[in-house]
Amino acid sequence: MAKLKRLATKDDVIVDVCTPISDTEIEERHKDYEQLEPRKFAFRYNPMLYLPTTFTLNGETHSIQYNYCINPFCHNFGKEQKKFESVKGKPSRYKIGGSSNYNKEVICNDNSLVEGITLNCSVNPFSNWSIAEEIKRLVQVGSVLDIEPDYQFHKDGCADSSTTPFKDTKNFYSRGETKAKSHKYQCKTCKKYTNVLPNRERSTTYHQKKNEILPTFARLLVGKGSVKRACEILQIGNGTYYHKLKWLYRRCLEFLERYETKPLKMMEFNEVWLNTDKMNYYLNNVINKGQKAKKYPGLEERQLQTYLVVTADASSRYVFRSDIAYDSNITLDDLERDTILYKEDHLNTFCRKNDRLEWSYYPQEPTDNDTEDVGGYKYELNKIKKRSQYVDGLHVNVGYTNTAHFWLIKNLVNAKEWRLITDDDKSIRNAFYRVFTNEIRLSDAHHFIAQSDKTKGREQCEMEFEDAKNHLHEWGDAKGYKTRNLRTLASHYLEEVLHKHEFSEVKVKDGLRYIVHKDNPLEHPLASKDRGFHTVDCMTDLSSYEPGDIAKMIMNVNDHSVNSFIQLVRRRISSLERPLTTARGDKKSYIYANLNPVYAQYMVTILRTYYNFCKPMKMGNKKLTPAQRIGITDKQFKLEDIIYFK
Length: 646
Fold this sequence. Notes:
Layout: E1 5-7, E2 15-17, H1 23-35, H2 38-44, E3 53-57, E4 60-64, E5 94-97, E6 105-108, E7 122-123, H3 128-141, E8 144-146, E9 172-177, E10 183-187, E11 193-196, H4 214-221, H5 227-234, H6 238-266, E12 269-282, E13 305-313, E14 319-324, E15 326-327, H7 332-342, H8 374-387, E16 394-395, H9 398-412, E17 415-422, H10 426-435, H11 437-441, E18 445-452, H12 458-479, H13 486-497, E19 504-509, E20 512-517, E21 522-523, E22 534-538, H14 547-554, H15 560-572, E23 580-581, E24 588-589, H16 597-613, E25 617-619, E26 622-624, H17 626-630, H18 639-643
Parallel strand pairs: 12-17, 17-18
Antiparallel strand pairs: 1-8, 2-3, 3-4, 5-6, 6-7, 9-10, 10-11, 12-13, 13-14, 15-16, 18-22, 19-20, 21-22, 23-24, 25-26
Helix pairs in contact: 3-9, 6-16, 9-10, 12-13, 13-14
């Protein structure tokens, strides 16, 4: 029987990340911290850059190490660091460049005596440890666990204190049920009454008052009802509103566990087209209750930019994940404790456990050999203390969220081949190349960039749509095609163009031939009424494909699926809508904006569940939900099915 569930907390070990440094190294760090200046201290522990981090998830052990070349056309792409002992000078495959601690780069060593042709690539390194911690955070945020209460069935000194009604039914009386449908038992010896939690089949709304408002509450939430307006309609207080929001979020996670995670694990796709983008919004920067604004002036004017990362299936428009780049569980006390233990303030960023956070270390008093003065220390300390007066938690570097986001999608979906569609976003692109390295090297994964001119007016876009339609019909007539279907004509047109158009080119160096990206985007022959023409570029090697195969792939390149969901977020979630235009100096007001990213994650997940399983859309001749189109369910659900899911 299914037990009642609760949201996972940071104390639950769902993902067990192994600390990549030993106790001996920690002791050495404490000694060197006082004796070495920061630059020498950081240099000594740089080898951690290429050290894999191991973690356990669902009984499986995973190891990640993503600090290598991520240029798909480079000979070093995806290869681990290596020192060539047999070559003069013993060069390494990579070297570390950059003067500033925050601008370090992993650079391909351009040495023709070593191996192949490298492209002098450079990439900002990430902390493998911090990537594992971000994966751990996203798993914890999206997990529910069984409630396991510690029952006391007996009074102190009872002769049958070791018995329970689950195993020793003869030692207990069954005393019926409470109004909340929890079963009551009484010990026959000590006469103690104990209520036992009902299972999920008997009560889906245990510990919930005003159950009758839940469907209306859910519809207001996904229908752009503001917090204040929902409270007025439902006649509840703000505290009850957020309690219901958390409860509904948990119900959505339970629903997704059965109808998303399990079915996707059982399915295998020949090809999956991912469409990824990120949305940013600004927190309503409200000081925490009990804090004095005059004590820490300045931060109340700061706009705390927060990112939402979304990935959808381009074919079915099913949204696989939507993650807020914010860690609400981390505290500044945790940050200070890690800084003191691992001496992270003197390490390079790629060696830090908390490099993913907006503050990767807590300022420490300068040591005798420190290059930082007391004034600089107090300045940094004052900045972080200002931040502590506002919303709990810390923002996460969106590059780390992107990487963990893709890793979890890859772990969820079984696919033979992968295709990714994005705009020209470096953080998303680098994350994809890191996570899907092996697939790209085997030509089982490709990345397409779709871009359009967002300055166009609606009239121009409609003109381009008509021009594209007329051009394809005229071209089809000239070539003798009888069909008037625009997609069929566009596919034939692309195949002809691709006999001459190339996304990459061959170069020769030291007698060796190698392929590089040409930066030669192609205008897609199909224009849309709202955006006009858009261009397509491929950032991976397509040289082994025939023009007809490339044409078929390009026909699938558009960003409609992810844009559709992000626009729904803007339109349906009141606290995540675009800022209001006002008479203020910056012409914007964030008065209705979300003030706690925890609730933003709740709302977006609820909307994602509703969008995937309850909201049908017409594509072709059928009106189906994204979940039906991708094949994980054969019915359209209602909000009541999620709320009262057993």
